[in-house]
Specification:
The chain has one domain: BFD-like [2Fe-2S]-binding domain (Arc Repressor Mutant, subunit A, Orthogonal Bundle), CATH 1.10.10. It contains 3 helices and 2 strands; from the N terminus they run E-E-H-H-H. A two-stranded antiparallel sheet has the order 1-2. 66% of the residues lie in helices and 7% in strands. It is elongated, with a radius of gyration of 16 Å. The protein is mainly α and 74 residues long. The relative contact order is 0.16. One of its GO terms (molecular function) is metal ion binding. This is Bacterioferritin-associated ferredoxin. Belongs to the Bfd family.
Length: 74
């Protein structure tokens, strides 16, 4: 699904940006150009960014817990 039609940025592109580390809305605007033309995408982008950030943090915690459990068994 397109997150920003003006710059043909898909939701997947936003999620990939978040997977690289902490990202703010201003980072997305600067790096992907989103939200800088008509602005209609900004509220949806904030939602996508929030959700993707939470998912990324959860994956990091799950990996950390897995690594700790794996190390205990070794």
């Amino acid at each position: 699904m397109y997150a920003c039609i003006c710059f043909a940025v898909k939701e997947r592109d936003v999620r990939e940006a978040v997977s690289g580390g902490p990202v703010r809305m201003s980072d997305l605007c600067a790096n992907l150009g989103v939200g800088t033309k008509c602005g209609r995408c900004v509220s949806a982008l904030r939602d996508i960014l929030r959700q993707a950030t939470q998912e990324s943090q959860l994956r990091a915690v799950n990996c950390e817990v897995y690594d700790q459990n794996f190390c205990r068994e070794a």
